[in-house]
């Protein structure tokens, strides 16, 4: 699913960056991609995706 339509950034890309590079916040995602630099409507969805990845990683660590 596309999260950022302006730049074609998908939920898979955000999850991949979070898992493979350990990115845990929007600032980190924005350093790797132009997420939120156009209209900004995607930022909230991207934060939710990062939170979901964090929860899954915490469950796996337990």
Written description of the protein model:
The chain has helices spanning 11-21, 26-32, 43-61, and strands at 2-4, 9-10. 23% of the residues are buried. It contains 3 helices and 2 strands. Strand 1 and strand 2 form a beta hairpin. Helix 1 packs across helix 3. It is mainly alpha-helical and 62 residues long. The protein has a two-stranded antiparallel ribbon. It has one domain (2-61): BFD-like [2Fe-2S]-binding domain (Arc Repressor Mutant, subunit A, Orthogonal Bundle), CATH 1.10.10. The model has no long low-confidence stretch (mean pLDDT 95). Belongs to the Bfd family. This is Bacterioferritin-associated ferredoxin. Its cofactor is [2Fe-2S] cluster. Keywords: 2Fe-2S, Electron transport, Iron, Iron-sulfur, Metal-binding, Transport. Residues 2-52 form the BFD-like [2Fe-2S]-binding domain.
Give me the number of helical elements.
3
What are the segments in which pLDDT stays under 50 over at least 5 consecutive residues? none
Strand order of the largest sheet: 1-2
Approximate shape = elongated
Overall pLDDT score: 95
Q: Order of helices and strands, N to C?
A: EEHHH
Largest sheet: 2 strands, antiparallel
- Quick one: CATH class? Mainly Alpha
Oligomerization state: single chain
The value of Rg in angstroms is: 11 Å
CATH architecture: Orthogonal Bundle
Stated plainly, the CATH topology is called Arc Repressor Mutant, subunit A
Number of strands: 2
Helix content: 55-70%
CATH homologous group name: BFD-like [2Fe-2S]-binding domain
Question: What is the number of domains?
Answer: 1
Secondary structural class: mainly alpha
